[in-house]
Amino acid sequence: MIAKPPEMWAQFTCEHPFEQWTVGNEGHAVELDDPDDALGLAYGRPAPMSSDLEWYATGPARDIVAGYEQPGVLHGDVELVAGVLELSELQAHRTHRWTRHPGAVLPPWDPGPAVAHLGLRAPFRFPDGSVCDLVLTAHGWRRRTSPAQR
Question: What is the reported pTM?
Answer without folding.
Answer: 0.66
